[in-house]
């Protein structure tokens, strides 16, 4: 089976890295970090605030706050 699949996999250009520059890698990491920070501080905060308003959150806080 391996010898039947290998030619098909080898011709897919998406799996080959032709060139990698130090600057391009650093730019990619910087952009990725900025996007993750933006997502965490926008969508993450919205989700956190919405979670605090749920009944499930209130029940958990009540349960954990008691001396049971």
Largest sheet: none
User: Spans with pLDDT under 50 lasting ≥5 residues?
Assistant: none
Query: What string gives the helices and strands in order?
Result: HHH
User: DSSP helix count?
Assistant: 3
- Tally the beta strands: 0
Helix content: over 70%
**Radius of gyration, in angstroms, nearest whole number:** 24 Å
Q: Distance between the terminal alpha carbons, to the nearest Å?
A: 61 Å
Q: Quaternary arrangement of the chains shown?
A: single chain
- Beta strand %: under 5%
What characteristic shape results from the CA principal axes?
A: elongated
What structural class do the secondary elements suggest? mainly alpha
Overall mean pLDDT stands at 80
Describe the structure.
The chain has 68 residues and is mainly α. It has a domain at 19-65. It has helices at residues 2-10, 22-52, 55-65. The model has no long low-confidence stretch (mean pLDDT 80).
Observed structural traits:
3 helices, mainly alpha, 0% strand
Present the secondary structure layout.
Blueprint: H1 2-10, H2 22-52, H3 55-65
In short:
With about 70 residues, this protein is mainly alpha-helical.
